[in-house]
Design a protein that fits this description.
Blueprint (H helix, E strand, L loop, with lengths): L1 E2 L5 E3 L5 H9 L2 H5 L15 E3 L4 H12 L12 H20 L4 H27 L7 H11 L8 H13 L13 H6 L2 H10 L1 H12 L6 H20 L2 H14 L8 H4 L12 E2 L3 H4 L6 H6 L8 H7 L9 E2 L2 H10 L9 E3 L3 E2 L2 E2 L1
Parallel strand pairs: 2-3, 3-6, 4-5
Antiparallel strand pairs: 1-2, 7-8
């Protein structure tokens, strides 16, 4: 590592060195103590700057060359639509049942049940914005909007547009909307502020892209907004304000300090030097519809959630040695209390290469 012209540490090493490190230390070291590897030389006023190519594109090419049969996993899964309908109906049943309970059950049920259902809808919405339910792009967008009925927030289409940028410009400053802002790096410091960051994570997660790289709303976003206004109005009129409050509170909890929301931290925050994407392997994948298979997802974003575990089974030699998370609650605690972790704990690349040319 060396100081660049801006006085920031810059890393000229390649991520492939991680493989040699694993060979020397043994694979189990990272798997058993992923939180013990955060203490390495790093910037705390900016991200970890590296000059390597996007690793998922490299691994995708290698896997396709060695395992062309993996293409059988590509394409939409219509069962996601039926699952989405079922979860929305379940959410509305919960709205009707829990919105009339006492305040304690109201809060507990929204955190323990409503948030889980809302987060499952978020995971499905993620798949629909990759157009992995129907062959038709339009049907996928309309279905994503329908899922928002079970969340009370018109987020589907806007999320899809910014999430597409996250894949296209992964870890490129000012282009990847998933990267924290400089304001976050400067101000989200210490356990208390990081706790507050996690508490208000839905606001950071939803509003950050609009400040970093604002996009002009399109017709589907307007349709999304109108549809949710109508849906929320009907809930308010026919089920009551407490019902609408329970729904929105559930969605907020699902992306706030909640174990299932920890994937927003574990996916790309640099817990191990030079490794920029992490899996979660555990029982929560059942509830978040395999969002934990995040490395496989970035390698093959055209594979639906239901088939992501098969990627590792087809090409285990590319994934078995990679470190992974096994406990979302511990990941949240590590982020809050580990002084070596913060918004600066992300890898960024210096250059954007399109068609082999540096931009």
């Amino acid at each position: 590592m060396f100081l660049n012209s801006q006085g920031l540490l810059e890393d000229s090493n390649q991520p492939e060195l991680l493989k040699e490190q694993e060979k020397r230390n043994g694979h189990s070291t990272f798997r058993e103590s992923i939180f013990a590897n955060t203490k390495f030389e790093k910037n705390i006023t900016y991200f970890h700057i590296m000059g390597h190519d996007e690793p998922h594109a490299i691994r995708r090419k290698q896997i396709l060359e060695k395992h062309p049969e993996i293409k059988i996993l590509f394409g939409p899964d219509i069962m996601s639509a039926w699952l989405g309908v079922g979860i929305v109906l379940a959410q509305f049943w919960c709205i009707n049942f829990f919105s009339t309970t006492n305040w304690l059950w109201y809060l507990v049920s929204s955190y323990c049940i409503g948030a889980v259902l809302s987060h499952a809808l978020h995971a499905l919405m993620h798949d629909f914005t990759h157009y992995l339910c129907f062959e038709s792009m339009q049907y996928n967008k309309l279905m994503a909007i329908f899922l928002n009925f079970g969340q009370g927030v018109p987020s589907a289409i806007t999320f899809g547009r910014y999430h597409s940028d996250h894949h296209t410009f992964m870890n490129l400053p000012d282009l990847d909307p998933d990267l924290p802002s400089q304001w976050e790096i400067d101000h989200v410091t210490g356990p208390l502020r990081k706790f507050l960051f996690m508490l208000f994570l839905p606001l950071f997660y939803s509003l950050r892209p609009m400040f970093i790289r604002p996009l002009v709303p399109n017709q589907y976003e307007i349709l999304n907004l109108v549809a949710i206004i109508i849906s929320n109005t009907l809930i308010y009129i026919y089920m009551g304000p407490s019902a609408l409050g329970w729904l929105i509170l559930s969605t907020y909890f699902g992306l706030s300090i909640h174990p299932l929301a920890a994937h927003l931290i574990t996916e790309h925050y640099e817990f191990i030097n030079r490794l920029e994407t992490y899996n979660y392997l555990g029982i929560a994948n059942f509830l978040i519809l395999n969002l934990g298979y995040h490395t496989e997802h970035h390698d093959f974003p055209n594979i639906p959630w239901s088939r992501l575990p098969l990627v590792k089974k087809i090409a285990p030699e590319f994934y078995d040695s990679l470190p992974y998370h096994t406990n979302y609650t511990l990941a949240i605690l590590a982020y809050i209390f580990d002084g070596y972790m913060g918004p600066f704990s992300r890898i960024v690349r210096k250059e954007l290469k399109l068609n082999g040319k540096t931009k």
